[in-house]
């Protein structure tokens, strides 16, 4: 399946027309270009965050405000080594430039945990995303399966180990700020995660012959706690906060992390923090690369508000595990896609 999909993507790019499996319904197609940048998303400096004084207070205030407003912000001066960021991106591009048979040695379709796949983790989707991905399951360290980590290009494994460590440290510092904003102990969110998972997803979006008909990654919210995204300078990450009525393209900033809050953050804060609603668009001029690091709770972590004010009601009907929340989310996505496809097939005006 993955081999066939990869051939189809390449053939579509060369043929100048999309296969129908990539074509989105009219209402899903992008109306804002990949390089039509907006500055609405806050850019926040992390310099001085571990010191006392005005710099820390200002960064703290802006991070909390952005988490409540958009659920997205860009973080600069974060202390993750810039040379390491460049190396990770360079090695990732080298991987995606490999022949198909090399990448497919790490094919993760069929339920394998980690490796390479085309389009999506979610098997059974009717419309495919225009992308290829590599996934590293990086934390807990003891659970790493290095047999699923690509061994080419040389040095990518070592770079990923160091990158995952530094990003984990940064993510935990951000969680301390969000915990304090909820008037909890600063390690409250980390403890709620039980034994925090970390997953790195490297996204490659090839240039596309008809980018106005498809998406690199469909509209979604991340299921977990917090995502730190490193993107190149091409552009294509878009966000909405009015249920998809309007979209903005986030301006790339070299060396910055785009920080997205996910569903878990939304639920444990009892709706205070937004779960960022976003997608990725593609273009016909050049490929795009991004590296998303997901900081997620352990599968058995409880999903329920950590604190509620007097008289405040929970936005959740029951406490469930993160594993169950994730399964429900994925099942719901597939069912909605199935119903939409069925409606399209039964309506001659849409065919």
TrEMBL record:
PROSITE patterns listed in its UniProt record: FE2OG_OXY
Cytoplasm is among the record's keywords: no
TM regions (residue ranges): none
Pathway(s): Secondary metabolite biosynthesis; flavonoid biosynthesis
Keywords: Flavonoid biosynthesis, Iron, Metal-binding, Oxidoreductase, Vitamin C
Superkingdom of this protein's organism: Eukaryota
GO molecular-function terms, A-Z: flavanone 3-dioxygenase activity; L-ascorbic acid binding; metal ion binding
Pfam family, one: DIOX_N
InterPro entries, sorted: DIOX_N, IPNS-like_FE2OG_OXY, IPNS-like_sf, Oxoglu/Fe-dep_dioxygenase_dom, Plant_2OG-oxidoreductases
Cofactor: L-ascorbate
Family: Belongs to the iron/ascorbate-dependent oxidoreductase family.
Protein name: Flavanone 3-hydroxylase 2
Organism field: Salvia miltiorrhiza
């Amino acid at each position: 399946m993955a081999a066939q999909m990869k051939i189809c993507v390449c053939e579509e790019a060369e043929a100048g027309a999309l296969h129908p499996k990539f074509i989105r319904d009219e209402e899903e197609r992008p109306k804002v270009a990949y390089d039509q940048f907006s500055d609405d998303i806050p850019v926040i400096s992390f310099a001085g965050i571990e010191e006392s004084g005005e710099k820390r207070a200002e960064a703290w205030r802006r991070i909390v405000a952005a988490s409540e407003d958009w659920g997205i912000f860009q973080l600069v001066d974060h202390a993750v080594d810039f040379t390491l960021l460049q190396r990770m991106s360079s090695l990732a591009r080298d991987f995606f430039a490999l022949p198909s048979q090399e990448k497919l040695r790490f094919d993760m379709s069929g339920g394998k945990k980690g490796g390479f796949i085309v389009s999506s983790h979610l098997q059974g989707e009717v419309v495919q995303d225009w992308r290829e991905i590599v996934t590293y399951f990086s934390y807990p360290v003891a659970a790493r399966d290095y047999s699923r980590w690509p061994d080419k290009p040389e040095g990518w494994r070592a770079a990923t180990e160091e990158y995952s460590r530094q990003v984990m440290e940064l993510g935990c510092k951000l969680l301390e700020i969000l915990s304090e904003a909820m008037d909890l102990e600063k390690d409250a969110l980390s403890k709620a995660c039980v034994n925090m998972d970390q997953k790195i997803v490297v996204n490659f979006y090839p240039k596309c012959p008809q980018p106005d008909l498809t998406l690199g990654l469909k509209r979604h919210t991340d299921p977990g706690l917090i995502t730190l995204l490193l993107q190149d300078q091409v552009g294509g990450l878009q966000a909405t906060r009015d249920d998809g009525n309007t979209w903005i393209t986030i301006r790339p900033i070299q060396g910055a992390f785009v920080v997205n809050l996910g569903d878990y953050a939304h639920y444990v804060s009892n709706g205070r923090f937004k779960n960022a609603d976003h997608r990725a668009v593609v273009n016909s001029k050049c490929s795009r690369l991004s590296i998303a690091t997901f900081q997620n709770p352990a599968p058995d972590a409880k999903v329920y508000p950590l604190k509620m004010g007097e008289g405040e009601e929970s936005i959740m009907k029951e406490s469930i595990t993160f594993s169950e929340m994730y399964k429900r989310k994925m099942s719901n996505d597939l069912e909605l896609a199935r119903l939409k496809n069925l409606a399209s097939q039964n309506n001659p005006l849409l065919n």
